[in-house]
Write a structure and sequence with these properties.
There is one protein chain. The chain is of the alpha/beta class. About 35% of the residues lie in helices and about 15% in strands. It has twelve helices and eleven strands. It has helices at about 10-15, 25-30, 50-65, 70-80, 90-110, 150-160, 175-185, 195-205, 230-235, 270-280, 310-320, 330-335, and strands at about 115-120, 130-135, 140-145, 165-170, 190, 215-220, 265-270, 300-305, 325, 340-345, 350-355. Strand 10 and strand 11 (about 350-355) form a beta hairpin. Helix 3 crosses helix 4 (about 70-80), helix 3 crosses helix 5 (about 90-110) and helix 5 packs across helix 10 (about 270-280).
Length: about 375
């Protein structure tokens, strides 16, 4: 195992250079660094976006190496490599970035970095683990991170748009789905509700019931700019939200199914940031002297669902991510539009745009 004192920016760059030739981190490193991991260009202004791209992930990796070499090596050699038979897996890379961003944010803000436990097992006798555990002041956080393959969702929408100028996207569960499919004048893409169910079931098995309000079982769901989708899936009564009394998930006796071990859910937009990050678009919009850093949750939109909502817990989470969170309850979730119309921003690109709508604007369910 490599010792953490040998983890330098040059070392990290040399590891990135071993990635697949099409991997974005290798492409950037080959552009501005030589084989020894040293700068090969003096034109910093021209390649500011490239320096910022590598510096951001490099800083996060060095922070991780300071607390856990096991976590560092797993991240840099496996997760960020995102290897597949040919090339690399974009979704797996984004997922790794999302996980690294959460770990970096918590580690940097912790007053007890030595408390960090990578892939902690919270349930005695279980072989299932959360991403990490860490102490934050008088709180202990067990953190599980989930990402949905929203790139696949984008491809499904693009494919549907090949034969139609518009596509109806159901952003939440709808009990009239079959009728909507039959009556819609445009192709229909169903909701991603089942994925959120999977995340809750998986996290619930990895957590054990919290001892008190200062032990927080935190499920983090990383999403893109369509963040209203998981919010409605979880808390909209109209959409039979998973965490509402009107949930479509029932026990055998007909009572609502609950996920008692999941104490708190944070939904953020980091998947969107990292879609732009791997496309080399993110840093073009910010000054090189003060660029956005996607490896801090400060730069994402954050929404909180907490079954034990206390001021201390909310304040601690806001202190960790360094910004206000939006508290999501049933009233808030019910105000969100349940469907969107997807279309190409312009005919010569693959940029998808969305307009939020109500289902009655598109489909007459009373006819």
């Amino acid at each position: 195992m490599i010792k953490n004192e040998t983890i330098t920016p040059q070392h990290i760059v040399k590891v990135f250079k071993t990635y697949h030739p099409t991997h974005p981190l290798k492409l950037v490193c080959d552009l501005i660094y030589d084989e020894n991991g040293l700068f090969k260009t003096e034109d910093i202004a021209k390649y500011a976006w490239a320096f910022n791209t590598i510096n951001a992930v490099g800083r996060a990796l060095m922070t991780l190496a300071d607390v856990s070499m096991e976590a560092y090596e797993d991240m840099v050699n496996v997760k960020l490599r995102a290897k597949k038979k040919k090339g690399y897996n974009q979704h797996n890379l984004i997922s790794a970035f999302c996980e690294l961003s959460l770990m970096n944010t918590f580690i940097v803000r912790s007053s007890d970095r030595s408390s960090f436990v990578y892939e902690d097992r919270c349930v005695d006798g279980s072989d299932k683990n959360v991403e990490f555990t860490i102490k934050m002041a008088n709180f202990t956080f067990h953190v599980e991170v989930k990402t949905s393959d929203l790139l696949l969702e984008d491809r499904n929408i693009v494919k549907a748009l090949e034969n139609s100028e518009k596509v109806l996207v159901l952003d939440s569960r709808n009990k009239h789905f079959r009728e909507i499919m039959e009556k819609s004048p445009v192709p229909v893409i169903g909701s991603l509700d089942n994925r959120i169910v999977d995340y809750l079931e998986s996290a619930n098995e990895k957590f054990s019931i919290s001892k008190d309000e200062y032990e927080v079982n935190l499920l983090v769901i990383c999403w893109d700019d369509r963040i209203h989708q998981p919010l409605m899936s979880l808390k909209s009564v109209d959409a039979e939200g998973i965490l509402t009394g009107n949930t479509h998930l029932k026990n055998e006796d007909g009572t609502p199914k609950t996920f008692d071990n999941v104490g708190c859910i944070l939904i953020n937009s980091s998947y969107f940031l990292f879609k732009e990050y791997i496309g080399f678009l993110l840093f073009d919009r910010f000054s090189p002297s003060f660029p956005v850093d996607p490896f801090y949750q400060l730069f994402t939109n954050n929404y909180l669902i907490d079954r034990n909502l206390t001021n201390d817990r909310v304040n601690m989470i806001q202190s960790i991510i360094q910004q206000k969170v939006t508290i999501v309850n049933e009233e808030y979730a019910n105000t969100l539009p349940p469907v969107s119309i997807a279309f190409m921003k312009d005919k010569d690109s693959n940029v998808i745009s969305f307009r939020k709508r109500n289902i009655d604007d598109i489909v007459d369910l009373n006819s």
